[in-house]
Design brief:
Number of helices: 8
Strand order of the largest sheet: 4-3-2-1-9-6-5
Order of helices and strands: EHEHEHEHHEHEHEEEH
Distance between the termini: 26 Å
Number of strands: 9
Strand content: 15-25%
Shape: globular
Structural class: alpha/beta
Radius of gyration: 17 Å
């Protein structure tokens, strides 16, 4: 399928601490990323952490998106829940609105919305879930999602700008869906380098069963996701950054 058609960017989930508990070396990651998905209080974070994260992103010139999840702090938003469409829309409005309050306070725009964890996976597989969540996204704000799934279909049906994601530290099933682990596992830097290179250079990825899945990216903007709660996340993002910078320099040199 060839290389991706847009400049590659990197997004990372940030602000996923809670109270006195930390989760991820956010300050170390910020200089290496383009976009942050900021937790909004349901799966992680609290008002002070949200404010601190927004200020840190602003200082680092990192675009800020909302990262709404299921209301499950103990399970970190990675356990499936059965909710009505009305509940899904409302929890999205609630969480995005909370982040928008902090963004307005710091005079920073909302860049995008990216659902978290198992909610993201539910949206990929269930059109009605995807539609319900996206009805809670402010008009004109892009959604980050998995192309070739119900996330893409719902976004297109509702006229929501869609940004296609690829993943540096998440495995893919043979059907193109993600393997969502409740607790992230470590990766070797050389494996991340090979994995991200394959994705940007050939629009494909090796699946858990050893097959090659061709990612239907079309002409969408592309952002590569890494996670701040993955063991060794600094090295993961560092390896991803090196691949992305080399790719962008090769195919999209600065004029």
């Amino acid at each position: 399928m060839g290389p991706i058609k847009q400049r590659a960017k990197i997004n990372v989930d940030l602000g996923e601490a809670y109270g006195n508990w930390t989760c991820g070396p956010d300050d170390e990651l910020l200089p290496m990323i383009d976009e942050a998905n900021v937790a909004c209080g349901f799966h992680a974070s609290d008002p002070l952490i949200m404010m601190q994260t927004v200020r840190s992103c602003k200082a680092s010139n990192v675009a800020i998106g909302a990262h709404p999840g299921l209301p499950d702090l103990q399970g970190f938003g990675r356990r499936e829940m059965k909710l009505t469409p009305e509940e899904l829309t409302a929890l999205t409005v609630y969480q995005v609105g909370a982040l928008q309050g902090f963004l307005a306070h710091e005079q920073v725009p909302l860049h995008h919305v990216k659902p978290h964890g198992v909610l993201y996976g539910m949206m990929c597989k269930d059109y009605e879930v995807a539609k319900a969540v996206m009805l809670g996204i402010p008009k004109g704000i892009p959604v980050f999602g998995l192309s070739g799934t119900n996330m893409e279909k719902a976004a297109n049906d509702l006229g929501i700008p869609f940004v296609a994601e690829m993943y540096g530290d998440v495995k893919y099933n043979g059907d193109g869906f993600l393997v969502i682990d409740r607790k992230k596992k470590p990766w070797k830097s050389e494996d991340i380098t090979a994995r991200v290179t394959q994705q940007v250079e050939s629009s494909s990825v090796e699946t858990v069963d050893g097959a090659t899945y061709h990612i239907p990216l079309k002409d969408y903007e592309v952002s590569i996701c890494c996670h701040s709660d993955s063991p060794g996340c600094v090295e993961i993002v560092k390896a991803t950054r090196a691949v992305v910078d080399q790719f962008n320099k090769k195919y999209f040199p600065e004029k």
